[in-house]
């Protein structure tokens, strides 16, 4: 990890706007979103379906070019995939014909870089995959495959880890296990993490702050701070604070969806009437 100038946020999203040019016209997916993620923070992004969460996250990774606005890492503009930013997706995306270890090494082969095998072994141990390196992906459960994806993402020692609905396809128990694992890895490495999730519980359990997006066009509607110390135990999920926060976030998401749907219906009725 490169030395950094702490006068800048770790990841700075400034007025990020993205228009997709589609056959049926231009679609404003995110509109002037600004967010400063500090070093060592875990930030979750929640919001209605189609509110631009993935678009915002992919823009942070440099995989999507913004229409206007910019993303900066340690004060430096991000214009494309960056070695200090790694991503984990909902699908582990493992090559089925390669062993687990060969999958983890694959991005290094593409880049012509030398993997730090001791670090990879340490990560494999950390996520409970010690001894599984020579297995094929089909021999691993969905949760184990996501652990491999996590090792692959962390093998580069990124300073920012972006996760797009990483545990969305897993059952509730495995998901909880993965949330604990993410927290443990975070406490070991203090990697800055930005996570898109549909689960408010997951967002509360993991995050320092939760960003709520409005229905399309996606704007940052609110940002909530989660006040619990780490490591967090599942017991916090039964507290009144969590109940109230969950209720507030749900109301923000659902209320916004309903009011935008109502506006669309009224606009359609008006245009029919005229
Ligand atoms: N490559 C693309 N081309 C055209 N439109 C796109 C593209 N990717 C996303 N969109 C549109 O942009 C809007 C935001 O999509 P995005 O996937 O970022 O939202 P999201 O909040 O992550 O949605 P979900 O929660 O359903 O995954 C949606 O209306 C979507 O259809």
Provide a descriptive summary of the structure in words.
The protein has 274 residues and is α/β, with parallel strands linked by helices. The protein folds into two domains: 11-84 and 160-268, 3-Layer(aba) Sandwich (Rossmann fold); 91-157, no CATH class. It contains seven helices and ten strands. The chain has helices at residues 53-61, 100-111, 117-126, 142-154, 172-189, 200-206, 240-273, and strands spanning 11-22, 25-37, 42-46, 68-73, 76-77, 85-88, 160-164, 192-196, 209-213, 220-225. A six-stranded mixed β-sheet has the order 6-7-8-3-9-10, sandwiched between helices. A hairpin with a 2-residue loop joins strand 1 (11-22) and strand 2. It is globular. The structure holds adenosine-5'-triphosphate. Adenosine-5'-triphosphate is lined by residues 20, 22, 27, 29, 47, 49-55, 216. It comes from Aquibaculum arenosum. Keywords: ATP-binding, Nucleotide-binding, Transport.
Which regions have little confidence, pLDDT < 50, spanning 5+ residues? Answer: none
CATH names the topology of the largest domain as: Rossmann fold
Helix content: 25-40%
So how many helices?
A: 7
Structural category: alpha/beta
Shape, per Cα inertia axes: globular
Tell me the domain tally. Answer: 2
List keywords for this structure.
alpha/beta, Rossmann fold, 2 domains, six-stranded mixed sheet, four-stranded antiparallel sheet, 7 helices, globular, binds adenosine-5'-triphosphate, transport, P-loop_NTPase, ABC_transporter-like_ATP-bd
Summarize the structure.
Pfam families: ABC_tran. With 274 residues, the protein is α/β, with parallel strands linked by helices.
């Amino acid at each position: 990890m490169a030395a950094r100038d702490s006068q800048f946020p770790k990841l700075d999203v400034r007025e990020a706007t993205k228009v997709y040019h589609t056959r049926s016209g231009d679609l404003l997916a995110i509109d002037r979103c600004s967010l400063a993620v500090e070093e060592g923070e875990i930030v979750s992004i929640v919001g209605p379906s189609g509110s631009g969460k993935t678009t915002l996250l992919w823009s942070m990774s440099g995989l999507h070019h913004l229409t206007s606005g910019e993303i900066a890492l340690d004060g430096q503009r991000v214009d494309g995939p960056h070695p200090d930013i790694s991503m984990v997706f909902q699908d582990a995306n493992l090559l089925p014909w390669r062993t687990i270890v060969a999958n983890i090494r694959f991005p290094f082969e593409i880049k012509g870089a030398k993997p730090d095998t001791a670090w990879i072994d340490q990560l494999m141990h950390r996520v409970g995959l010690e001894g599984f390196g020579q297995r094929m992906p089909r021999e691993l459960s969905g949760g184990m495959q996501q652990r491999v994806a996590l090792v692959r993402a962390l093998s580069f020692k990124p300073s920012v880890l972006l996760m797009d609905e990483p545990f969305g396809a897993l059952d509730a128990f495995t998901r909880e296990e993965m949330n604990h694992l993410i927290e443990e890895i975070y406490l070991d490495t203090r990697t800055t993490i930005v996570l898109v999730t549909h689960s408010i519980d997951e967002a509360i359990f993991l995050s320092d702050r939760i960003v709520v997006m409005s229905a399309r066009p996606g704007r940052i509607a609110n940002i909530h701070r989660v006040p619990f110390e780490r490591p967090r135990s599942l017991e916090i999920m039964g507290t009144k604070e969590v109940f109230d926060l969950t209720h507030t976030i749900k109301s923000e998401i659902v209320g916004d969806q309903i009011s935008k749907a109502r506006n669309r219906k009224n606009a359609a009725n008006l245009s029919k009437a005229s």
